[in-house]
Each structure stands twice: as C-alpha cells, then as structure tokens.
UniProtKB/TrEMBL annotation:
Signal sequence residues: 1-22
Main function: Part of the Tol-Pal system, which plays a role in outer membrane invagination during cell division and is important for maintaining outer membrane integrity.
Subcellular location, principal: membrane
Family statement: Belongs to the Pal lipoprotein family.
Organism: Acinetobacter faecalis
Residues in OmpA-like domain copies: 68-185
TM stretches of this protein: none
Subunit structure: The Tol-Pal system is composed of five core proteins: the inner membrane proteins TolA, TolQ and TolR, the periplasmic protein TolB and the outer membrane protein Pal. They form a network linking the inner and outer membranes and the peptidoglycan layer.
Key words of the record: Cell cycle, Cell division, Cell outer membrane, Lipoprotein, Membrane, Palmitate, Signal
Name of this protein: Peptidoglycan-associated lipoprotein
Membrane topology label: Lipid-anchor
Amino acid sequence: MKTVKFLALPLLATALVMTGCASRKPANTTDATQFPSGAGTVNTQGLSEDSALNAQNLAGASSKGVTAENKAFLAKRVVHFDYDSSELTNQDYQTLQAHAQFLMANANSRVALTGHTDERGTREYNMALGERRAKAVESFLVTTGVSPTQLEAVSYGKEMPVNAGHDENAWKENRRVEINYEAVPPLLK
C-alpha cells in the first residue's frame, strides 16, 4: 500500500506542474482578415484570436511613448525564434526596444508574453522551450528598464499553432512569442 502512495505522489505533482504551465485560457486562432479594415493599424497576422482582438482593441490606448520612429515596431506583436532556440535575433531587438520604451512610458500597461513552439518534440520539452522563449523576451524588457510587474510570461508549447501545416514554413511561423497587451495598449493611429 505504501508503494502505491509513493508512486501516486510524483504523478500527481507532475500533473499539477504541467497544468500550471499553461494556466491562461487558450485562444482560438484566426487571421487578420476577420477584422474590419478600419479597426486599426495593428498587424494581427500570426496572432491567436484573443491576441488579435487585443491588438485591435484601442479603447483606453495610449499614445505616450509612441513616436514616428517606433510606430512600425510597436505594430509588430510577434517575435520569432530559430529551431530549438530561445535566443533573440538581431532583427527583434528594435521591436522589443520599442515595446520597452512604450511600457516604461505607460506604467499602467500590462503585457502577457506567450511562448510557443512548433510541433516537433514532446509536450513537456515544448512547454519548457516555450517558457524559455517567453522568459527571454521578459528578461530583455526588464533589462531595458520595464517593471517586472507589467509582464507575465506564459508557455503554451506546441498546443496553439498559428499554422497547422507540417513543413518548415509552418514550423517557422509557430516558433514565436506573442506580445499581448492586456491593459493600455499603444495607440498607433
């Protein structure tokens, strides 16, 4: 009887950890064509439905920290990664720097950084990789001066692909971190 208890505890602990890794509500995926053309200037391609709606929601948005130079970078809400990597690429630094500038100028802004992977690898490995990717973006923003209280890093692993294909192009799109403004998004008009 003691053997059963000792075997059940690690299984229960593992199950609790795995369910806690993706504690946020999963979203349905969509593309930008589902939104009216006058809904805003944010590029929602490659975002989940909730993220796209969030990006389009300009109610309560702020123009503080939005400059002509960083407007295009603020419109980008997805950072992509190489295969099996959580290293930021040089092309993502300007995007992340623009979001950091905006977040520092708007202390009431809140961002969820959702890490995603392609379909290759085990669920457990991909949950950890998605978390490393989200934490890499979070670390860059905090190092730049953003308050950690404005950020939340979450991993969905391979559970929420934006492209359901099974080739390199699909996998490339799915290896990402989405920058989802949950409060006071940038006003980009």
